[in-house]
C-alpha cells in the first residue's frame, strides 16, 4: 500500500544509492537525443551473427489514489488495489511520450503487474508509444485520436505484482482470506485496443502467496526480469511494476547499491549484450545504462546531489528520475509522491550534518558558522494538468497550484521542519501565484504549532507561530520572461506582467510578512530577457549577503533551481527540476565586530540520502 517509509528501511539495510523518478517541469529547450548511438538496440535478426544490446526498462506505476485521499479505502471494495488519480494518468502518459521521443531504441513489448494502478499506467504509456499524429497538447490517452497497435504488445504478468506482505499492504486492507483476485479480462480491456498479446505465456501462472518474505520478493522480481528478457531476447521490454521491482532492478544488477525510494513513474534502464548465431542467442550480464536519456519528463542519473531526478515528460515539461551513488550520474527520480507520514519520524543522521548546521549568529562573538540557502521550485501547476484552463483564464501565464501541489508544498515544509539540521529564518518568493501559494504552504508547515499528524495542507493547521520566520516577495526570483518559458499566445499582449502584490502578500500566513524588506529587484524583469542565469545568480548572492546570519529559503521556478546548482558546482548542468525540488547551498560566514566575511557557496551533498529516503523532490543533472 505504499507504506514506503517502513518498507525502504527494511528493504535496504545498507543503502548507498537512492532512485527517484521524473518530475513535471516545463523543459524549455528542445529534447536532446542520447549520444551513445552504439548502444542503440532494435529487434534483432536471428540469422545475423552479431551482438546487439537488449534494453529493459523497469518502471513504477503512477500516482495512486489512496496516497492523496486517505478516506478512499474506507469505502472501497478493494482497498488494497487503488486506481490512479488524474495526475497519475497524466504522468504515465507523458512518461510514455518521453520514451517515444527520447529513447534511442524502440520498446517492443510491455509486461505489467495485475494491480489496477499498474495496468492504468501501462495503458497510458502504451497509448503514448502507439499514438499516430499525436497532438502535442495531449495530456492523457483520452486525447489520442488513433494508435498503431502494431508498435507495441502488452501482457499482464503476475510475477510483477506488489510485495504481498504487511510491509507493503497493511493487514486491515488486505483480503481477509489472503487471496488477491483479479478480473483479468476486465483489466486487459483497459489496454489500448489491439495492443494485447493473448498468446503470451506468463512466467507466473498465478499470484504469489500472501505473506511472502522480503527475500522472496527480491528473488521473484530478479527472476522476472531475467525470465522475460530471456524469453524475448530480440526485443526491448518495459516492465510496469511497483517500487520494489524497480529497487530490485537496481540493487540486483549494480554492486553495492541500494535503493531508498522510487518516485511515481520512476524507472531504471538495464541493458545487456545479446549475440545471435544460427537461431541461438547468448546473453551477457545486465548493467545499468550510464548514458541517461534526457526525456522531457523523466531522467535517470547517478550522482550525489540532493535534488537530482530522472526525466518525465509533460507536453514541454520534463521530469527526472535518478539513482544516486557517490561517484557518478545514473538513472531515476521521485517527487513528493508518497504521503509523508508524520507518525513515522524521518531518519536523519544529524552527526553527518553538524558541520553544516547554521543558526542565527551572535554578532559579539568571533567565529565561523555555516549559512544555508535552499532554492526550491514551486508545486504542481494547474495548466500542466488541465489544458483547457488557460483558454478562459484572465492571466493564463500565471496558473495556480492544483490541490496536489498545495499538499506537496505543505509536506515539503513539514519535511524541512523535521529533517533539516538548521532552522529557516527567512523566505523569499517569486511573485507568480504558484510560487506564493507554495511559499504559503511551506511557511504554514514550518510555523505550525501542535501540528496535527494527519494535516495535508495549511487549511488543516489550527495555529502558527509567526515569529519563527519572515517572508517577502522578490521580483528577482520570477519566471524566465521569454518565449522559452511562457508562450507568446498566453503572455501579456503588452509584455508587462502585472502583479497585485498586496493581494499576493495576503495569501501568506498571518504575521509572517516582513514589509520592511528592500527587494533586490525593484520591479519585474523585462519581457524578452535572453538569459536569466545572471539574474538568478545575482539574486541568490544578494539575498544571502543581505542576511548573512540567517538561513534562507528561496521559492522560485525550475530555472532558478537549475542556476543554484550549475553556478556553484563546476561542470554540472541541470536537465530538469521536479515540483518542490530544491537545492541546498551553504557557505562559511565569519562574523566579528559587526563585520561579515563570507566564503564561496557549495552544494551540500551530505544530506542527499536523507532527502531521498523521505520522498522529497529532486532535480536531474548531467556532468560535462
From TrEMBL:
InterPro entries: His_Pase_superF_clade-1, His_PPase_superfam, Phosphatase_SH3-domain. It comes from the Eukaryota. Transmembrane segments: none annotated. SMART domains: PGAM. It holds the Pfam family His_Phos_1. This is Phosphoglycerate mutase family protein. The lineage of its organism: Eukaryota, Viridiplantae, Streptophyta, Embryophyta, Tracheophyta.
